[in-house]
Structures are given as C-alpha cells and as structure tokens.
Amino acid sequence: xxxxxxxxxxGGRNDQPVYxxxxxxxxxxxxxxxTAHLAAPNVMIxxxxxAAEAVYARDIAWLDAADSVVADVTTPSHGVGYEIAHAVIAxxxxxxxxxxxxxVSKMIAGNPKLTFARYADAEEAVRRIAEFLFExxxx
Length: 139
Description:
Layout lengths: L2 E4 L9 H13 L14 H6 L3 H14 L2 E5 L5 H12 L4 E6 L6 H4 L5 E5 L2 H17 L1
Parallel strand pairs: 1-2, 2-3, 3-4
Helix pairs in contact: 1-6
C-alpha cells in the first residue's frame, strides 16, 4: 500500500523519534512511504533547500497517488492540516494520531470523515496504525 505519512516540520520536531518508529514500521511491513524522509532527524536541512512551489507540487502529487494517509497531529502544523483536508476531500482514508494529553483541534478530533486515535508511546502509535490499515483492508 502507498501510504502518505504527514508530520510537523516547522511547527516543531519534538516527536521525531515517534515519526521514525512509525515510518520504520510501515516500511518493514512492505508499504511504500514517499514521505519517509520526513521522519529523519536532519529533514529540516534537506527541506530548506527546496523551493516552496516544488514542495507543494511534489507533496500534492504524492497525496493524490496515496492509498491512505497517516498523520501525526500531536504538534500543530498548517501543512499537516492542509494535507489532511486535501486527502479527506479526495476521499482517501485518513488516520490522525496524537499523543495522549495533547490538545488537538476539534476540527480533527470531531471529523467523522477521518479516524482519530491517541497513543501513549511509539509502540501504541504503531498498533493504532496496524488497526487502521487492517480495517481499511476489510473495506
């Protein structure tokens, strides 16, 4: 399955170890993750070298080609919100994950057109993704 992984870049990188665990697991399961580089510790250096217009065109193409979207919404991000909305409008299955105890916009948590789940640690985040993908396979 082609899975678009979305996470905060400019909003903050405190959850980067969780992002890495998620992407590593998705790849180990045989999924294609065009945004795998977003989980790398040095992604900010790489992304600053690419023009905003190129990032937009690239990411929209990846979103349009994806079978589903997994987004970590623990750290607020304009880009992540935009990607989620784009995917929902396109009818893609979307899983939004947030660490327990963190405030999340009610526009995400209350949206019936996506799946919202909380996690305590990276292992639980991965379990939530496995459950989501299993449910999507059954549809």
